[in-house]
Write a structure and sequence with these properties.
The chain is of the alpha/beta class. It is built from nine helices and ten strands. It has a ten-stranded mixed sheet with strand order 2-1-10-9-8-3-7-6-4-5.
Length: about 280
């Protein structure tokens, strides 16, 4: 079952609402890229919230681990939740998620719900690890997660300004190619496009022309040719046929998945947080 999260920009320009979806069974790993103020963090939040609300029963309850090594205000509303790790605590959060993956791999954890790791700027997380061997170990762990965790219902979602191979360590571009969902928002340089998209996609970008500003960009699903996309606004979601049923998706996303094993079902709980975008 796919989770609709972005709008087809070409269709949008013709007045047609066509949603594009991510299927966690096929492509669980997501890479967001774009310059500052391109809208990638807002888009990432949107996908996380819609995943919580729309993931199929076999993947529920969705469990989130959020890493904010930059300690930006974008995630300040999550302060105090046990699966939110900011600043120097971010590497610890990454290690805990990797241990969760190992527990499933080794058969100690038989649960099948979706576990999502989101990191805002993995390069910043790596830079927080001073010891070279530990830094390289973190990059190897990321490589293993990207290559092997899909069957264990684990999803790695990263947001970064520059998705250069160097941030992935020795695995380099091989790790970057494990992302089945790649989205570049805003007008970016040719080098960034070359990192993320194949020749056919870049040719299509040239033909399409300037994509615009914040919240619009290009998406490749499962290695397919890039297509122009738009991050939906609150009104887009509220007015859509499926959006009427979940019009809390953007304005009031429940991040109870971050609250740990003591959480209850529903929205009216002490750990309820409001996402402002």
């Amino acid at each position: 079952m796919g989770i609709p999260f972005l709008l087809d920009e070409a269709a949008w320009r013709m007045g047609i609402e066509r949603w594009l979806s991510v299927d966690y069974e096929i492509s669980p790993h997501v890479l967001w890229s774009g310059r500052t103020s391109s809208g990638k963090t807002v888009a990432a939040k949107l996908l996380l919230g819609r995943t919580i609300l729309l993931a199929p029963p076999e993947l529920q309850p969705v469990h989130l681990t959020i890493l904010d090594p930059k300690e930006d205000i974008d995630f300040s509303y999550l302060n105090g939740l046990p699966h939110f790790f900011k600043g120097e605590a971010a590497p610890k959060g990454f290690d805990l998620f990797f241990k969760d993956y190992l527990a499933r791999k080794e058969g100690h954890d038989l649960s099948t719900n979706l576990k999502v790791l989101f990191c805002d700027e993995f390069a910043s997380l790596v830079s927080l690890i001073e010891d070279k061997k530990e830094r390289e170990a973190a990059q190897r762990k990321l490589s293993l997660l990207l290559m092997l965790s899909r069957s264990r219902h684990c999803s790695v979602q990263l947001a970064t300004q520059q998705p250069s191979a160097q941030i992935f360590g020795a695995a380099g571009s091989a790790s970057r190619e494990q992302f089945g969902v790649v989205c570049l928002l805003g007008d970016s340089g040719s080098e960034t496009r070359k990192m993320l998209f194949d020749g056919d996609s870049r040719e299509r970008m040239e033909e399409f022309g300037s994509i615009g500003g914040r919240g619009v960009g290009w998406l490749s699903l499962n290695g397919g040719i890039g297509q122009p996309v738009r991050v939906p606004l609150v009104s887009n979601i509220h007015n859509s046929s499926h959006g009427r049923k979940i019009n809390l998706t953007v304005r009031r996303i429940s991040f109870l998945s971050l609250a740990g094993p003591d959480r209850e079902n529903g929205l009216a709980l002490p750990h309820f947080k409001e996402v402002k975008v």
